[in-house]
Amino acid sequence: MNTYRSHDCGELRKSNVGEAVKLSGWIHRKRDHGSLLFIDLRDHYGITQCVVDSGSAIFSAAEKIRLECIVTVDGSVVERSGDAVNGENPTGEIEIQIRGFTVLSRVDNLPMSISSVSDLSEETRLKYRFLDLRREQIHKNIVLRSEIIFSIREKMKKSGFLEISTPILTSSSPEGARDFLVPSRLHPGRFYALPQAPQQFKQLLMVAGFDKYFQIAPCFRDEDSRADRSPGEFYQLDFEMSFVTQEDVFTAIEPVIYEIFKEFSPKPASPYPFKRITYDEAIACYGCDKPDLRNPLKISAVDDIFEQSSFTAFTDAMKNGATVRAIGVSGAEKQPRSFFEKLNDWAKDQGMPGLGYVIFDGKEAKGPLTKFLNDELLLDLKERLLQSNGAVFFVCDQRKNALKTAGLLRQKLGTDLGLCSDGFEFCWVVDFPMYELNEDTGAIEFSHNPFSMPQGGMEALQTMDPLEIKAYQYDIVCNGVELSSGAIRNHLPDVMLKAFEIAGYDPEITREKFKGMFNAFQYGAPPHGGCAPGIDRIVMLIAEEPNIREIIAFPLNQQAQDLMMNAPSAVGEKQLKELHIKLDLPKNISKNDPKEG
Predict the structure, then answer these.
(1) Cβ(588)–Cβ(177) under 8 Å?
(2) Rounded Cα gap, residues 388 and 330, in angstroms
(3) 3-state DSSP assignment of residue 383
């Protein structure tokens, strides 16, 4: 028998009644009933109720043991009486009659509760993350994450993909975020970069002839925290395929994504093939490039209607380049006046002067904009945006702001009115622009992935307005969350030079900056493409957690700090000297050098 246990704390059942057993775990909860002391013993696998009566020689010692102490208990399995059965616990039909126990590890006062679901600050939870991870829900999340990754690996290997690890220490490249830099001791003044993604290496694997590659890849980006993005590092299912078109990539990954959600969540998921939505359509109809398709509402352009209206607030703005966007909501006419007043207040919080709307109830049209629209325009509006009765809401602004605000309004209406379905709705957003205009500098920049193949190839780069060029770039979106971005890659060196030249890179700089890839392309590169679904976001959605930190074992806080390990931390002068580094800190920052041993 194992020194510490014969069974784990989630294993024993009614069939084990009468057996002598040994369990080890944490004291999860104690309940003193006078003549009986109940102890819930917890380990990774579950919780088993143990009991000791007041006549036992160990009662006094057991009564004094603190929560979260680690003990080994010896005893026998007994069946619980009918009214004592706990149907919510797999071990709830039995309990352990304790004959003896040994304390393996004692506990001082806990800085946080383990068994209760009390509100704790992020600082406390992350500083004592090893305790936070003992809590049932987050413990389950980490187990779920492990199981999902294992299942993904099996599915990818079954589909013929080969798992290959790519370097962590590499060179800096412009992939859209700030790099984490690592100074080189052997090469003074030179720096490695932690990979923002294995982008160049996986393309080089295709050049090398491996055909189908994948890995659960760690990625490092020095960017700000968000609810669906962890600062510092994250993991993605990175994969690449040779001799494929965009549709081939979709066909390869859609069954994997669908089956993962089907396997690990009871909620319905939209089957593959996933819906395809162009980038332009996504912006025009949903106000963003990450549409939540659980929400049935869409945005419509109604400039032509208001051009014929007498509503000067809109018509004057339109003369200066503004556009009017509308959202029709069937059944909204039944909402009380307070609903519309609250929406108006919300609009003001968004920086709008207010929210215009028209309510259609039977033959009657009412609302603040009704008097500016004649019967013909009102009928046109109703026929376009509503099935029957309902309300139409309006946003007027310059196009970019109007679509963004209308997108936020769409989300709010869908949520507040309970219009969103319950489940997972997948779609591909395709045909992203190859380039975008930096509004601050006026420069043309890559809008997505710089290594993508432009639609139309070299001819498009040479003849078209760069801002009109589309790329073979695509995102997988689920419930308004971007799960992945990907692309069919450019594999031609002359196209690569021209694409980067348009984005402001001198050809010599491109050759030097991307030497490995550029050289490889000159020795025969197959057409190839891939994608990289985010592991963290997949687990977050399946676990129904609102924040990505709830499914990561040891996340950084919102300021990109590890409060438990005190990272980032200062280093001593000896280490800095070895790395040929001198600090040039802001005046309000102290070096705070640690003592050197």
Answers:
(1) no
(2) 7
(3) helix
Q: Are 196 and 233 in contact (CB under 8 A)?
A: no
Q: For residues 260 and 542, what is the distance between their CA atoms, to the nearest angstrom? A: 9
Tokens representing residue 241 in the block? 């395929």
Distance between CA atoms of 90 and 48, rounded to whole angstroms?
Answer: 9
Q: Model confidence over 219-248: pLDDT tens digits?
A: 999 988 777 778 889 999 999 999 999 999
Q: What is the DSSP string of 490-554?
A: P--HHHHHHHHHHTT--HHHHHHHTHHHHHHHTTT---EEEE--BHHHHHHHHHT-SSGGGG-SS
Average pLDDT rounded to a whole number, residues 8-33: 95
Contact 149/536 with Cβ under 8 angstroms? no
Residues 240-298 have pLDDT tens digits of 999 999 999 999 999 999 999 999 999 999 999 999 999 999 999 999 999 999 999 99
* Confidence (pLDDT) at 595: 44
Q: Which residues contact 380 (CB under 8 A, 6 or more apart)?
A: 305
**Is the C-alpha dihedral spanning 114, 119, 124, 127 positive or negative?**
positive
Q: Is the peptide bond before 273 cis (omega within 30 degrees of 0)?
A: yes
Measure the CA angle with vertex 62, ends 58 and 68; round to 5°: 150
Give the contacts of 518 (CB within 8 A, at least 6 positions apart).
493, 496, 510, 511
User: Nearest Cα to 270, choosing from 483, 535, 488?
Assistant: 483
Which range in 68-77, 344-353, 445-454, 514-523 is most confidently predicted, on average pLDDT? 68-77
Only one residue has tokens 């450019």, namely 490
Angle between helices 136-158 and 246-264 (to 10 degrees): 140
pLDDT tens profile 524-537: 999 999 999 999 99
The pLDDT value recorded for residue 209 is: 97
Which pair of structure tokens corresponds to residue 320?
A: 């200066």
β-pair partners for 38:
31, 51
Strands of 403-489, DSSP E: 426-430, 435-437, 444-446, 473-478, 481-488
- Report H helices in 55-197: 59-64, 122-127, 129-132, 136-158
Contact predicate 425/448, CB 8 Å = no
Rg (alpha carbons) of the chain, rounded to whole number: 30
Residue 473 phi, psi (nearest 5): -120, 145
What is the amino acid identity at position 228? D
Would you tell me how many other CB atoms lie within 10 Å of the CB of residue 164?
Answer: 16
Mean of pLDDT values over 108-124: 83
- Report the distance separating Cα 72 and Cα 48, nearest Å: 12
Question: pLDDT at residue 522 above 70?
Answer: yes
| Closest of 471, 478, 534, 541 to residue 499, by C-alpha | 471
